[in-house]
Structure formats: C-alpha cells, structure tokens
Design brief:
Growth Hormone, Chain: A; globular; mainly alpha; MFS_dom; about 400 residues
C-alpha cells in the first residue's frame, strides 16, 4: 500500500478522535461553561449538522483546485476549528470551533476516498479506501479513550489542543506523501452534479443513511442501556466503547477486503447480519457477556458496510465521483442524527432503553431491501450500459 494512504489515515484518526471524544467530556465542558448537559449536547448535534452541510459545500468549493491542495486546506481548517475549541472563552465560541472543524470532515473523507482509490490498481480500490478509514476506527480504540483520559486528568482543553496537533501531523503527511494529482479534465460542478441523476447513486446513499443509522440507533444510547439494563458500572462503558471500536476496526478491514471481490453479496451479508444482531440485542442487553458480544458485532457488521457503500457510490458516479463521495460521507452522519433522534423518541415514549435496538434493526433491514432492489435494477439495465461500465465494473459486483 502506498505511504500516502498512511497520511490520509493520520488525518482520519484526528477527525475520528475529535468527533467521538466529545461524548466522554460533555459533563466537564458543561460544568466549565455553566450550561446543562442537553445544551452541551449541541456540541455533538452541531458537529453532525456541520458534516452534512460541509461535505457538499467544501467539495464544490474545491472543484477548481487539485485534490491534494484541497486535502491540505481541509486539514488546515480542521486544525483551526480544534484550536478554537481548545481556547474558547465562551460556550458559543466552543460551538463555533466544533462547527468549523466539522466542515472539513465530510469533504476530507469524500475527496480522500477518491484519492485513495486513484493511488492503487482497480482491483484494490476498496482496500485502499478501507486503509484510510482505518484511521477513523483506530481513533475509537486509542484516540477516544486516551483523549477522554487526558481530558479528565489534565483538562478537556488539552485534549482539543492535542487533536489540533494530530491535524498538523496529517497536514504535513499529506504535503509530503500524497502525490500531486491534477484536477481531472472537465471537473466542473455541473459534471459532478450529474452523478445525482443516477438512481444507483441515490440508492447507495439511502443504504448508507439507513444502514449506518442502524448502528447509531443502538450506540447513541449505549451508556444508559449498559448501566441500567445490563448492570455494568459507569466506568465499564468506556471499555465497552473500546470493544465497539475493535469491532469497527476489524469490520472495516473485512469490508475492504471482500468489497473488491464481491461487493453486493458483502452488503447483503453485513446489512442482514446487522439487522439480526440489533433485533437480538433487545434480549442480549439483559446479560453482561452477551451484551458485550453484541456491541462488538454491531461495530464489526456496521463498519464492514463502509468500504463497499463508499465504493458503490464511486463506481456508480461514473466520471464525477468527488461530490458524490463527499455527500455519501454526509449521509453517514445524517444516519447518525436520524437514528439518535428516533432512538430518543422511543425511549421518551416509555418503551425502555433497549427500544432503540428495534429501531436500528428496522433501519438495517430497510437498507438490505434497498440493496436487493439496487441489484435487481442493475440486472435489468440494458446491455450497452453494462458494456460502457467496463470489465472492472463487472469484476467488482459479481
């Protein structure tokens, strides 16, 4: 694998850490600013919304410059946002810092996916995308627990300053290791927008929203579910999230490995498995060992869908992959926000702390149905289109 993928993975590690570390630091941040926990929760919501808006916005702004230059600018923006968070004198400024950092998130992973895929042979594209996303998954195993520990021991401002330092490291790595990739000929906004006329691109994005929503329906409310239903202590929740991160890491590698060979069967297996595990989680949550196994499986099956879904969008957005790739990253976060909201609704309705698992199972099941529909449409496509897609397309999907 090219060294340039390591630079992309370091950037992904920093982004993954800043996205998720906030959850463990919310009580302290709320206390320091004198705001309630729900108000402090805006730091999570604001970040997710910033990703959804920033992914297409920053990608469109970057259509006039090379992808390498854009990746460097995005890492610079990420550093500025985290420094703002670290130094913020008021809660409003802290929220501003979070939003600034989040604007870089979607476009970085979107453009990074295209760059990663371009660095390797056609039959290794999903593996290259998975290598970059490894940084995001490792962040949940190492970066988030370490950032939470630093925040509790020294102060949460130190955590955000350290994350800004990671961003600088990623920026230098991209500058040194990513080859200069000229802007593709004819890469204009109008051309990039044509990708969204494809039903297959839209179906892949809908699968992303629903499939990843399934994961976050359960994980958003993991702390009350594990402490009040499974009977774990508060301190154990951190280790359960590390277990989730290990599942994410292994699932991502598995997804990258098999998506290059059998993309659609990989999606059927992972989305179907995710729906079953989430449905069973409503029962297994009452047993400590089975709850731990379920959390690991949700992480593994959920993230095994990431490389194939991202590659599916790249494959279907022929000749205009950059904006579609970035918007798909926004779709992951849209899934997170949607699932967290729906999970909150069923808990507020008095259905219990395991109820979000049913929501997740239904979302993952719906994503599986869309995958089957997408494959059926592809089989019915007229022969000339299949020929135009080329042999690499056929190799990937069948």
């Amino acid at each position: 694998m090219p060294l340039a993928l390591l630079a992309l993975a370091i950037g992904a590690f920093g982004i993954g850490t800043t996205e998720f570390v906030i959850m463990g630091l919310l009580p302290r941040i709320a206390g320091d600013y004198g705001v309630t926990i729900p108000t402090a929760g805006l730091l999570v919501t604001g970040y997710a919304i910033g990703v959804v808006i920033g992914a297409p916005l920053m990608t469109v702004l970057g259509t006039r410059i090379s992808r390498k230059t854009m990746l460097m600018l995005l890492m610079g923006l990420f550093v500025v946002g985290n420094l703002l968070s670290a130094l913020a004198p008021s809660f409003g400024m802290m929220l501003t810092g979070r939003v600034v950092a989040s604007l870089a998130h979607g476009a970085f992973f979107g453009i990074g996916s295209v760059v990663a895929a371009d660095l390797v042979a056609p039959d290794k594209k999903a593996g290259a995308i998975a290598t970059m996303f490894t940084g995001l998954t490792v962040a949940n195993i190492v970066g988030v627990p370490l950032g939470t520990f630093i925040g509790q021991a020294v102060g949460w401002r130190t955590t955000f300053a350290a994350v800004a330092g990671l961003g600088v490291l990623g920026l230098v790595g991209i500058a040194r290791l990513v080859p200069a990739m000229p802007r593709p000929e004819g890469a204009r906004l109008r051309g990039e927008l044509t990708a969204f006329r494809s039903p297959q691109v839209l179906l892949a994005m809908a699968m992303t929203v629903l499939g990843f929503g399934g994961v976050f329906a359960a994980i958003t409310y993991i702390a009350p579910m594990m402490t009040r239903v499974a009977g774990y202590s508060d301190g154990a929740v951190t280790w359960l999230l590390v277990l989730f991160g290990v599942g994410m890491f292994l699932g991502n590698l598995l997804g990258g490995r098999y998506a290059d060979r059998r993309l659609m069967p990989m999606l059927y297996a992972t989305l179907g498995g995710l729906a079953v595990v989430l449905a069973l989680f409503t029962v297994t949550a009452h047993s400590r060992p089975l709850a731990a196994v379920s959390i690991f499986l949700v992480g593994a099956l959920g993230f095994a869908t990431v490389p194939p879904l991202q590659k599916r969008v790249l494959d279907q957005a022929h000749g205009a992959p950059t904006l579609a790739s970035a918007v798909n990253i926004g779709a992951f976060n849209l899934g997170n926000a949607l699932a967290a909201w729906l999970g909150g609704l069923v808990i507020a309705a008095g259905l219990g702390y395991t109820a979000p698992n049913w929501v997740g199972a239904l979302l993952a099941g719906a994503a599986l149905l869309l995958a089957l529909w997408s494959a059926a449409l592809e089989r019915r496509a007229p022969a000339p289109e299949a020929t135009a897609a080329g042999p690499a397309h056929t190799l990937v999907h069948h």
